[in-house]
């Protein structure tokens, strides 16, 4: 029985602050493992050994540990927000231009695009996010601005912003993303101008936010699509589907490992953040800049693994 003693049933009270402190200790035990992303030179300046984690409950309580208020480059975590906004504006039309299957390949891979005729596997690899950004740009006229506005509103933090140095660094070293975008355009799957779409993509990746901001901003996914102010962003079934895509594609070719270890939907970025959802209950964001070979934060994975294992809270 002692093994079960630390798990909780869905409705039991959990001492979140205590569990976060333990998760932070699990993260610290990975000290020195992994490397800070440097293929975007401005990202290499991130504080390698920082760690933070926050949890926002579905009804808006916020808990944090470590550097949970410190801002970092959200990078591919932004792909979650471009996706939900594009679905909110345009519904299922999006799925004509992007798939929803795991890619089993690195996030910046070009390889499947050729055999799959310029239709990216899913919205969470770079190729797919470029298509989603293109659609959001058509829908709103300002894709990066739409993501930033949404994050500011949902987090209640109007000072969130884009780091222009990171955006410029991405653009300057963005040969791979430019190759992906041009290849997609050659198949007629970009509606806008390639350079404009890429500029928006780089800008939303370069948004800076803290763990607390992202945990609050993702809360609608734990609330079946309902935003902080009670209005509906997504239909209940759409929110379910976004969570499903996060689970199977949110951490690229390590999504199987993430599901195995953590057992909840999660979206990572090369800035070292991972935003994860416990449907009906809470959202969690963990951050540590050192990445594993698949581009996911070593410390954030360890912390989320500890959280779901110690509490017994997962979708399984
Ligand atoms: N996995 C990531 O976070 C990658 C995002 C980064 N902006 C890129 O395009 O390479």
TrEMBL record:
UniProt-annotated binding residues for substrate: 76, 126, 170, 177, 201, 252, 270
Annotated HAMAP family: Glutaminase
Assigned EC number: 3.5.1.2
Record PANTHER family: GLUTAMINASE
Subunit and interaction comment: Homotetramer.
Family named by the database record: Belongs to the glutaminase family.
Source organism: Actinospica acidithermotolerans
Keyword Transmembrane helix (UniProt): no
Broadest EC class assigned to this enzyme: hydrolase
Catalytic activity as recorded in UniProt: L-glutamine + H2O = L-glutamate + NH4(+)
GO molecular function: glutaminase activity
Domain of life: Bacteria
Protein name: Glutaminase
Example GO BP: glutamate biosynthetic process
Keywords for the protein's UniProt record, in alphabetical order: Acetylation, Hydrolase
